[in-house]
Amino acid sequence: MTKEFYSNGKLLLSAEYAVLDGAQAWAVPTKYGQYLRVSKNNTSKLSWKSLDDKGNIWFEGIYAIQNLDGISSSDIETSKALLKILSEVRRLNPDFLVDSNGCEVVTELTFPKNWGLGSSSTLINNIAQWTNVNAYQLLEQTFGGSGYDIACAQYDKPILYHIDKGTPTAQEIDGQLVFSDALFFVYLNRKQNSREERALQPIEKEKSIKQFLLNR
Predict the structure, then answer these.
(1) What CATH number corresponds to the domain at position 165?
(2) Given CA atoms 82, 36, 52, 64 in this order, what sign does their dihedral have?
(3) Quick one: DSSP state of residue 26?
């Protein structure tokens, strides 16, 4: 039997970066997202395969169930990131895969990876659903961030999101925007790494923003 999980992608409409400091953000989940499908096998190994929106394999890895050591992978850095997630899952849920004979995991994006709609956050939320751990905690201990993207993964309507005394808080917004029919998003092919941008010093950050605006 195959178990299937799905998480929505995300669009942040306001409070980018400021949401990390407690500002209230306005965010929208997208119909595009990511699937995670899990089936059992008898190999004593975890077999992982990641598909893009065209159904092409962009990553493969095989891991030992007992100690979560890597056996083989198609990309070292991606494998390291995945192992970090799985190791944190086992810390949060010590029973994760302990009594398993092995399993096969297949993830599948429904949007191009370079669109920036949340390939990492949808993965984290799907893994959290599969392993019964808190998705916000898993995000904090792996990729980091405000968690608004996790909230989008879990909600089907626009949300207001903020961090209240360290606790992620999301509220669905009912109703439709009066200007929604005239609202468009244009992909500029200028995806930025939020962790790197957040780490910039104020002067460096100002230069980065100016350079971004000049290149538009």
Answers:
(1) 3.30.230.10
(2) positive
(3) E
CA nearest to 183, candidates 40, 58, 28: 28
Looking at the 3D structure of the chain, how many domains does it have?
1
The pLDDT tens digits of the residues spanning 181-203 come to 887 777 777 766 655 666 655 55
For residue 164, is it within any domain? yes
Distances (CA, A) of 106 to 132, 194, 210: 18, 26, 40
Calculated CA dihedral for residues 20, 21, 27, 32, nearest 10 degrees = 0
Asked whether residue 75 is assigned to any structural domain, the reply reads yes
Residue 194 in any domain: the answer is no
pLDDT at 143 over 60: yes
What is the reported pLDDT for 37?
A: 98
Full domain range(s) for residue 113: 2-173
Asked if residue 204 has pLDDT above 90, the reply is no
Q: What is the pLDDT of residues 38-96, one digit of tens each?
A: 999 888 899 999 999 999 999 999 999 988 999 999 999 999 999 999 999 999 999 99
Question: CA–CA distance from 198 to each of 54, 139, 183, 195 (Å)?
Answer: 32, 16, 28, 5
- Tell whether 178 is covered by a domain: no
Q: How many residues does the chain have?
A: 216
